[in-house]
Amino acid sequence: MDELVNYENGPDSLPVPPKGRHAFGVVKVGEKGQIVIPAKARKVFDIQAGDNLIVLGDEAQGIALIKEKDFMAMVEEVRKQK
């Protein structure tokens, strides 16, 4: 996992991801199912204490988090297009 977050030039290193794509590290799930979102991820996505997040899932690709207000804005755009 260290190779995914620390990009170095070398024959065995992974390439730097495209602009706007990130790997923030590993988080551990606590006994109550909680995780801590890494500080850098919170900064990049402007996630503040008290923000509501939608948890999305794709059985083939995994779990994603999106701010509730951003998700609802996308839903509203889809509704306008109908």
Low-confidence stretches at least 5 residues in length (pLDDT < 50)? none
Number of strands: 2
Largest sheet: 2 strands, antiparallel
CA distance, first residue to last residue: 43 Å
| Strands ordered across the widest β-sheet | 1-2
Question: Helix-strand pattern, N to C?
Answer: HHEEH
* Average of the residue pLDDT scores: 87
Shape: extended
Can you count the helices?
3
- Bin the strand percentage: 5-15%
In which range does the helix fraction lie?
A: 25-40%
- Structural classification: alpha+beta
Number of domains: 2
* Rg, alpha carbons: 16 Å
Quickly describe the structure:
The chain has 82 residues and is α+β, with helices and mostly antiparallel strands. It has three helices and two strands, in the order ααββα.
What does it look like?
The radius of gyration is 16 Å and the shape is extended. It has helices at 2-5, 39-44, 68-81; strands at 53-58, 62-67. It is an alpha+beta fold and 82 residues long. Strand 1 and strand 2 form a beta hairpin. A two-stranded antiparallel sheet has the order 1-2. It folds into 2 domains: 1-47, no CATH class; 50-82, no CATH class.
Tags for this entry?
82 residues, 2 domains, two-stranded antiparallel sheet, 29% helix
SSE blueprint and pairings:
Blueprint: H1 2-5, H2 39-44, E1 53-58, E2 62-67, H3 68-81
Antiparallel strand pairs: 1-2
